[in-house]
Design brief:
Helix content is about 45%, strand content about 10%. It is of the alpha+beta class. It folds into two domains: about 5-55; about 80-119. The protein starts with 9 loop residues before the first strand and ends with a helix.
Length: about 120
């Protein structure tokens, strides 16, 4: 697999441009336009090859590709004792575990943040 095949692309629709813009997060400044998401990625792949060529010609190190992370689903969170107590009381009142209550609150917060970003 060639190095340029390991880099990622993000594609978003641009109202202003009336088309799709693809960017490569590992290379700031690399973006490409297309009428479809596929066209935008194809153009971005061409731009990526040129970026890589330029980096090599100037002796710059290529950025490391962003690889998919794997998550265990476990984290440790430190919080004030008073907040821990309030959350534990809420969980007890709801008849659920503290873990379940915290997952519910985190899910609601993430969903609400995504909805605000869409608006």
């Amino acid at each position: 697999m060639k190095i340029e095949e390991k880099y990622s692309f993000k594609v978003r629709y641009s109202e202003e441009d009336e088309g799709y813009i693809a960017v490569c997060p590992e290379f700031p400044g690399l973006s490409a336009f297309g009428k479809t998401p596929g066209e935008a990625i194809e153009e971005a792949e061409i731009a990526l090859e040129l970026f890589i060529e330029s980096y090599k010609e100037t002796g710059r190190n290529l950025p490391k590709p962003n690889l998919t992370n794997e998550y265990s689903g476990q984290i440790r969170v430190r919080l004030p004792k008073s907040l821990h107590a309030r959350l534990a009381d809420m969980a007890e009142d709801e008849g659920v575990s503290l873990n379940t209550l915290m997952i519910q609150f985190l899910s609601e917060g993430v969903t609400s943040k995504k909805e605000k970003a869409i608006i």
